[in-house]
């Protein structure tokens, strides 16, 4: 079972930190999961404009393949200007609507205010519902105060919520095997 940990931004470190923590919790499940973290900052992305797959550069083809071949996802995103980053939306635009169907997805996000968690509800979940993903109900939203000045996750409650989200994600993965 291949789990893709997708960091949907090209700047900052907080979403990477969250994915590293989740990766540890997934390993702790002692299940037959292979995790792979993709940080979009490491790829030369092109705007999706309707071209056939093979007309995009190698990095875009790689990202599309990884998205479409994964069995489950943890998507991490910052919230910028009350929205998800364009880089993350661009990846979703590149993926076939059938590729993520009935695959489990958990969401973690980070924003500058407490109110930005609504972006998950009003933007990200509708996109994932369009793909007909199995979205876990307990996403984790963080903000600046949950991190040290060095970018380390320091809030114990957030650690607990990440562990619980990982537990539920594991259950969704087990459930998806029956579909």
UniProtKB/TrEMBL annotation:
Give the enzyme class: oxidoreductase
- Residue span(s) of domain NADPH-dependent FMN reductase-like: 1-143
Which InterPro entries is this protein grouped with? Flavoprotein-like_sf, FMN_Rdtase-like_dom, NAD(P)H-dep_FMN_reductase
The protein's UniProt keywords, in alphabetical order, are: Flavoprotein, FMN, Oxidoreductase
E.C. numbers: 1.-.-.-
One GO MF term attached to the UniProt entry: oxidoreductase activity
A Pfam family of the record is FMN_red
Supply the name of the protein.
Answer: NADPH-dependent FMN reductase
> Native species of this protein?
Halobacillus campisalis
